[in-house]
Amino acid sequence: MEVIDSRVTYDVLTLGETMVRFSPAGYERLGQSRTVEMHVAGSESNTAIGLARLGHRVAWLSRLTNNSIGRWIAAEVASHGVDVSHVVWTDDDRVGTYYMERGAPPRSSQVIYDRAESAVSHMRPEELPSELFCSQAARVFHTSGITLGISSQSRQTALRAIELARGAGQLLSFDLNYRSRLWTASAAGEACEPVMAQSDLIFLPIRDARPVCGTSSSDPAEVCRELHLRWPRATIVVTRGNLGAAAIDLAGTFFEQSAFSAVEVERLGGGDAFSAGYLSAFLSGKKTADALRWACATAAIKYTIPGDLPLIDRSAVAALVADESQLGSAIQR
User: Fold this and answer.
1) Please, is 87 exposed, middle or buried when counting C-beta atoms within 10 Å of its C-beta (0-12, 13-18, 19+)?
2) Closest C-alpha among 283, 221, 271, 212 to residue 248
3) Which residues pair with 38 in a beta bridge?
4) Residues sharing a CB contact under 8 Å with residue 296, sequence separation 6 or more, in sequence order
5) Residue 230: closest CA among 273, 271, 188, 199
6) Beta bridge partners of 141
7) Which residue, 37, 53, 15, is CA-closest to 266?
8) Could you confirm whether 272 is annotated as catalytic?
9) What is the DSSP letter of 128?
10) 283 touches 295 (CB < 8 A)
11) Are residues 262 and 301 in contact, defined by beta-carbon separation less than 8 angstroms?
């Protein structure tokens, strides 16, 4: 089915913070290494890049510090086909950073955030490009719980963007993306609840369903059915890590999709690649079962790529989706 819809300028608008990630080479520890790798990393921009590389027209909204680091981030995101012309530039504040030390069993990976007072944390609702929030501008608006959790200011901006998108008739895609270093599970649940209540598409890891959403079960079918009763207007997609994913559609039909086998090089960014794959299939008119398969295939390919960015190709994803030897079978019930 045709990916491009000529009736709108963009298929998807995204809003969120993008940071610089510093990592020691290989599996060295932060206190051991004398050199670090630099990566561009941000949930919504990761999803935007994945969508652009899958053939969609995407714009990323954010606020960046006007220095060499901010300009590098914008250039990197733009190099993959994402429109960054609506990014707000400031001479104040700073670009957020984080440090990731790769671990190998039994030593786990370690992440340290340094994002306080970042440019996005001070983004104001009036800095949103109002011309993008009309029915002819975009089909879908996508953001995440990270943007709600960065600061009260970024939350107000995200909520205003959601209000504008809904008023323009744009579909709302929301990734819960809970980060315990940003806020507590109860605070995240309270802030994200009204957003998920008006969303058309919700992504969340099953590990966050009980602490953030208050589900009574950890079984994917029960989780999906509980959340469907709470948010019946949304298709709800639950990721399960190496076990694949599940979803429940507007009619209450439950779907399961097992994961595709992959040699894992870098797991960071896999969830964003998953949402890009699902949204791509959704925008192309595919049904829920097929969209789950596309999402799991996109995530599997991302796991083989170092860094946070989903440097995927549509042809490779399509080939993996079509590979019947893979274990990625879908179950509907």
Assistant:
1) buried
2) 221
3) 22
4) 244, 245, 257, 258, 259, 260, 274, 277, 328
5) 199
6) 13, 172
7) 37
8) yes
9) S
10) no
11) yes
CA pair distance 74, 87, nearest whole angstrom: 8
Q: What is the pLDDT of residues 319-329, one digit of tens each?
A: 999 987 775 55
At a CB cut-off of 8 Å and minimum separation 6, what does 217 contact?
Answer: 210, 223, 226
Annotated catalytic residue: which of 83, 175, 272, 308? 272
pLDDT class for 2, splitting at 50, 70, 90? Answer: very low
- pLDDT value at 55 more than 60: yes
- Domains in the chain (CATH in brackets) are 10-332 (3.40.1190.20)
Number of DSSP helices (H) and strands (E) in the chain, helices first: 10, 15
Contacts of 125 (CB under 8 A, 6+ apart): 156, 157, 160, 161
Q: What is the pTM of this model?
A: 0.94
Cβ neighbors of 152 (< 8 A, separation 6 or more) are none
